[in-house]
């Protein structure tokens, strides 16, 4: 099957084309879509591109940062404003992949990918779609395979204070393996106790997700061995991890508390 490529000057034009053609896919960087092409994926026959410069911009706006959907992992690593995301971007493949992989593409990357998305979930991410509509990230993840497909223009995240944001990618192949699980955490404290924690996993379900049982268990706790005990007990509460070629559901359940503890306490 032949593939046609259509390029548009604006994000809005590309979004219109995407919403009107179920056999079209928008390409951010191409790490996943070009692999699908090479593997003979028959679900699409058109690739859409947009040359809108806003898609590759990083802007500071008060205490938030606006990141265009075609910003690459390499651009994140080169940005001082996004220094807190450097460990996350560095966990995405090797240099060649980081030069291609985009923020927007990561939002649509299915298991075992989506490491950046887990981080965005805890950073109060708001998604702006082409045309100006907004969406929460959990809503986008819930609806990302529905038709008509949407085109993400940018994401907005908070800029965390030092020490609040934590990230860990667990992989059996280092340094560039796919995720057995990924953990991102936002751990603010007040008076020496956790207040308003946000914790997210990827590769532990059909999409990256917030882990509410862990968040609730951390509320009011001290960030030490004793204080995080209830959170570790709740590490997989309400979650059904997948079984795949990387690990079984049982194994993911067994190791989740270990890696959650290392994330929270820095071990």
Structure write-up:
By secondary structure, this protein is an alpha+beta fold. It folds into three domains: about 5-50, no CATH class; about 55-160, Uridine Diphospho-n-acetylenolpyruvylglucosamine Reductase, domain 3; about 165-265, CO dehydrogenase flavoprotein, C-terminal domain (Enolase-like, domain 1). About 30% of the residues lie in helices and about 20% in strands. The strands form four sheets. The chain has a five-stranded antiparallel sheet. A four-stranded antiparallel sheet has the order 9-10-13-14, with helices on both faces. Strands 1-3-2 form a three-stranded parallel sheet, covered by helices on one side. Strand 11 and strand 12 (about 195) form a beta hairpin. The longest helix is centred in the last third of the chain and has 17 residues, at about 250-265. The radius of gyration is 19 Å and the shape is globular. The mean pLDDT is about 95.
